[in-house]
Structure formats: structure tokens, C-alpha cells
Amino acid sequence: MKTTKHIFLLLLCCLALQASAQVRVHLGASTAYNSTFVLDEGLSKDPRYSAQMTYNWAPVGMAFGADFNRGFGLQLESILSNQGQIYEIIDVAKQKIGERRIDLQYINLPLMLNFLSNSSSRTSFNFMLGPQLSLLTKGQEIYEQYKNGTLQTPENGQIPVGATDNGNGTYSYPAGTTVLASTDAASAIKQFRDKELQLAAGLGLNIDIGSHLYLSTNIRGNYSFTDMRNEDLINSIRQNSANDVLKDLFGRRANMLVGAQIGLHYMFGGNRSSVRSLGPLGN
User: Fold this and answer.
1) Distance (Å, whole) CA 211 – CA 274
2) Distance (Å, rounded) from C-alpha 180 to C-alpha 171?
3) Residue 12 in domain
4) Which domain holds residue 132?
5) What's phi and psi for 127, nearest 5 deg?
6) Percent of the chain as helix, strand, coil, to the nearest 5
7) Which of 64, 202, 204, 205 is deepest in the core (most CB within 10 A)?
8) Segment holding 130, helix H or strand E
């Protein structure tokens, strides 16, 4: 019942806005395929790791927008987004002996300023920019070493708990799997930050495919201003405490995403190419 009421209220808002000749509103759904990155200065400087290209789906997104004239509008989106990064574990012989996987899922809520090319043709350019609130729904970071290995001790770093110091700048570490962080963890030190502030941007085309329907195609990206890790874990790494099992080098960790998004939208009152004059929209 609550969902039905919310949909009904949203439709009423759409009709109220559409009643004004100055505003046109639209609803849409989207999907995207992205390259996702966990940018970590500490891991990038660590000889034990090699960052790999990582790809993930943002399987579903919803959008509600309002165009105030032919050149400018606002769009609020809700996007379920899978993100993360794979770092290969490299031994002293430069051989892969495991993976460090960071798997995250967010509900991204960007509020986008939408700048449109002032045209009544079927195809128009768009540029979008705005803040994004990202709410973590689930996440896990796993260190999985497939076999016993000899690894290089990072400069200014320490050997991890359970390792054997070889005395020559290397250490031996046994095969095994360690959950470094998880949204299911009971300990606060093993949890992620539950929300992030990001900047989102997009560039692409809107293509009218009917009197009320249009297709949006965009290159989209976002970057986080806040560290994705829990503050307790950050302090543990800085202090090289016993809780920091792998003795990571400290560096700010940020989420970044770049990908291709496609969406289908319904424009109340008709598309740009089908509505030649609606007050200020016809200017």
C-alpha cells in the first residue's frame, strides 16, 4: 500500500508540474556497464599488489526529471550500482599467487543539473553535473592467497600477523583466505563507511523515439570525496596496530566509476521534437 501511495503522489506531482507551460517532467529507467576503481594510494605503492581493470553492472536505475526550458533541467536518480576493484597478489618472483577483492554495492542518489542543446530536432546533446549521495547496501573485502608465498616487505611497512620474517626484506606467508572488511562484521573496525559524498557527471545524447518517449545514452562517471573505509580501520592502519592484519600502507581510498549508461524515458506533454512551442520552451 505504501508503494502504491508513493507512486500516486509522484504522478500527482508530475501532473502538477506539467500543468505549468514552463516545465516539462519525465520519468525513466536505465541500466549501465561500468569500469569501477578503488583508488588507494597505499595499495598502489605496495609491491605486493597489482591493480586490475574491473567491470561491474549497474543493473537498474530510476530517474525523475524536470526541464525548465529547452536548455536546462534537473534530474534526480536512484541507481543500484555494483562497484569495487581486484588487486592481484604478487610474490617476489612477480608471479600472481592470489587476489585481494573489494566488492561493494551502493544505492547512488545523484541530483544532476542537466544542460541540453537548444534544439527541437529528434537528437540533442546533454551534459549533466551534480552531487551524489551513495548509500552502501553491502560490501566485502577479501584477501585470498592461493598458495604459500614469499612477498616483499613494503618500504616503511611491517610484516603481517602470522608471517615469517626472512630477514632480507621479504617474508613468507601461508595460503589462506581472510575477510578484511564486511558489512556483516560484528566488529566496527571491520566495517565500511555506510555513506559517501560524491561528484557525478555525464555527457551524451537524447534521442526521441516517439511523441512521448526518448532514449538517453551517456558516458557517466562519479568520484568520492570521502574515504570509503570506517574511521576505526583508518586509525588502525595509521597506527600499525594488531587489528591491521595485513599491515597496509596508509593512503586515502576513494571510489571512482566510469561507464556507459542507457535509459528509456517518458516525457509528459510530448518530446522536444514534437512540441514546437510551450511558452518559454519554444524560445
Assistant:
1) 6
2) 20
3) no
4) 23-282
5) -130, 130
6) 15, 55, 30
7) 202
8) strand 123-145
The cell numbers describing 250, all together, are: 596508509
Residue among 216, 17, 38, 19 at smallest CA distance from 123: 216
The per-residue pLDDT string of the chain (283 residues; one tens digit each, 9 = 90 and over) reads 444 454 445 544 544 544 444 688 999 999 999 999 999 888 898 999 999 999 999 999 999 999 988 788 999 999 999 999 999 999 999 999 999 999 999 999 999 999 988 766 788 899 999 999 999 999 999 999 999 999 999 887 788 888 999 999 999 999 999 888 888 877 766 778 889 999 999 999 999 998 899 999 999 999 998 888 777 667 766 666 666 667 777 778 899 999 999 999 999 988 866 655 444 444 4
DSSP label at 204?
E
CATH code for position 235: 2.40.160.20
18 within domain boundaries: no
pTM score: 0.83
| DSSP letters spanning 217-236 | EEEEEEEESS-SB-HHHHHH
Task: Give the closest residue to 14 by CA, choosing from 61, 67, 62.
Answer: 67
Structural domain contains residue 11: no
* 17: in domain: no
